[in-house]
Amino acid sequence: MKINLVIFGTKNLNNSLEEIKEDLGFSFIHFDPDNFNESILSSVSAVVISNNICEDKTSLSIVNKIINKPILLLGDQNFTTKCKYDDKISLPLNFADLKNKIIHLITAHKFNENSSIIIKKYTLDKNEKKLKHESMFVVITEREVQLIELLFNEAKPLTRKAILKKIWKYADDADTHTVETHIYRLRKKILNKFQDENFIINSKLGYSI
User: Fold this and answer.
1) Which of 98, 106, 103, 149 is nearest to 126 (CA)?
2) Where does residue 148 rank: exposed (0-12), middle (13-18), buried (19+ CB within 10 A)?
3) Distance, CA of 64 to chain centre
4) Is residue 129 within 8 Å of 139, Cβ to Cβ?
5) Which pLDDT belongs to residue 1?
6) How far apart are CA 159 and CA 205, in angstroms?
7) What is the mean pLDDT of residues 15-20?
8) Which residue ranges form the domains of the chain, and what is each CATH number?
């Protein structure tokens, strides 16, 4: 796994990481608050931040705008911070621990990223089996997760028979009441929790999201 990092660090931290660059096997981009381009984040796997950086208002503002990248914070044993982060590690660094922590953080982030889908104003969390909007959520079944994901991924509405075949693997002439029942229950959950009648749309062409 090729890992590229953005380092928001002090001069001493930057120098220390450069010295063990080959041992870690990572590529580094060092953060310059006076010359920072957000586009570089698209090519990196994670962000490593020294807690001291968060004392600078310009740096803090940039760090707290970072989205969709895991952030590892470095600091003293009992530090507090204004920076957002996903995990932290205490100084002085054990570089083997640092490497393992970064790899674990990136792996966990990728897993969570693959398990969540943004659908309209909602987030479908396939791990927790929840459909979320802001602070609210509704618990759904594994089959309902499959239904939502299938309808979301299809460009055109799907008929009841098509849904039955794709999810339940039934023959073309099987009873389609199974689909109607599941969609009815799912729509009722969404209506009761979010007052949304149009999450799943039923037209003469079939069902769609």
Assistant:
1) 149
2) buried
3) 16
4) yes
5) 58
6) 7
7) 84
8) 4-114 (3.40.50.2300), 120-208 (1.10.10.10)
